[in-house]
What does this fold into?
Amino acid sequence: RDFRPPGALLVAALDSAEPTEVDTTWKYLTFVMSGALCASFEGMHKDSTKATSQGRKQAVPFSNSSNSFLFATLPYEPVCTENLTPWLKLLPCNNRAGLASLLRPIPLAEAPLVSLFMRVVVEDTTVQLRLSLDSVLPTQSGRQGFGAYLGSTKLAKCPAADTSEVLLVAPSGLDGARLPPNATVLDNSKGGHILKWRSDIFATVETPWVASSGLTKSSSGSVHQPRERLAVMRDVLTQEGKSERTHGRYLLRATNNGRTVSREALFMEQLPFFIQPLWQTLRVTLAYEGATEALFGVDAIRFLNLTFVPSDGKVTPTEVYWSAVIPPGGTVNVFLDVLKSFLKVEEFSYACEKGFDVGSAAWLERDAAATTAASSPPSPQNPVKNAFAASKSGEKSIDFRDFVDSWSLEFSSGERPQGEWRLRFTEGLLILVPMPDFSMPFNVLALTSTVVTFFFGSMFRLTVAGHMPHWVLKKELPPVSLKRKIARLTAASIFLGVSFALANAEEADLISLAGMLPDDYVGDALQFLKDGKDMLSFLEMGGKKGHH
It folds into this structure.
């Protein structure tokens, strides 16, 4: 199996081609999958801010008019969540019974490769859910058989399951092999064999039987025969004498590793909005049996049947589609110069120096031996081009069931039947783009903070700090004696008592008191205190009336 793209993949086949319905279904699907698996599938929707350079929905243009085939990829998983637990919750027995009870969460989290697969098929009133987990696990000392890789050797059948069986794909040539007990050998129509036995003895089955059995091996000593399929490399190279952050050269190389059968391929690519392709620089080189031939411009576009949907320059990517039939041992190289646009500061991610992660490209391939024929008589002047001439003929329409089966999980070690499509993906890309001056916001903040600090410090010294002695200049005061403390408390009490008595005295008492004193200004002062008391009473009464 191919474990690409490295991040996340969402593929959908809909029985409708109406744009509004397709967009609504895709939006609902992305949010449902995001919640069900605690993943970042919501970034695949066009309204998401994460979909600027990755995760944009792409339609397969080779479908028939009554269906819609969609897919989107994420180059990495930005959400720091654990996806195994929500995946296990989709099982009837969770991880308490059945095959899932053998899994150990911590070793799976530490494994170098973990891939979760979920397939949902809705037909009429039937919903079929299929889950798969692929992982590379180290052996555990002290355990035998498959239990050395798993958490337990005891396996209980899930009560919700009608049957509980284990299927193991084995290569061809089981003659003389020491098979597991109670195992049944099933012939696989697509090559190899399938071993089936009860799940309750799965963990105790001895694993060395595979290596020590009489399996037929190839001359190289490998049990698995190499598949005849395409090997695709995709990259953005640098241009000599130009900055890699402003200029680049797109490269896609497809090689047919087969020896006898030609491969037909339908390529689907998305270039982010900040990558501007220069179509006048398009160049295609064909290599076959040691000879090469180059095509430029319009000739290259016609040869590849290339079509594209340009970007709006803001958010939407440039979508590119092309097709080719590659003979055995042949190679197609596609070169295209690109310009990298300047982006705003807010459009960069948390690691601006790293660059932008771009999602994978996709292609559909199949055996082209019986599907294509030369559309024009061969030219003796172009022997290399003649070997690829079949790329202009053949039926490009993909059936609904054919597309669904192209990305299904199969228990097979052999090739697909002739004429069946297979959906495959390339690795992601890391694109370096021009960076703005990220130090400018820091400079503005630093300058503003400095000005505010100087202003506050000056105002503080003028208003507060100048009236207080510095802590260095402060002198330790002598301790106050008990008699002085009592005298101060007595004076304060007398002052408060006299003030209270004067505030509550009548006007006649104040006049009498003023007559007893030698100076008239003392009486005037007492009258002033009385007027202040009346004013306070008046304000208090007004506040109560306002409250009511």
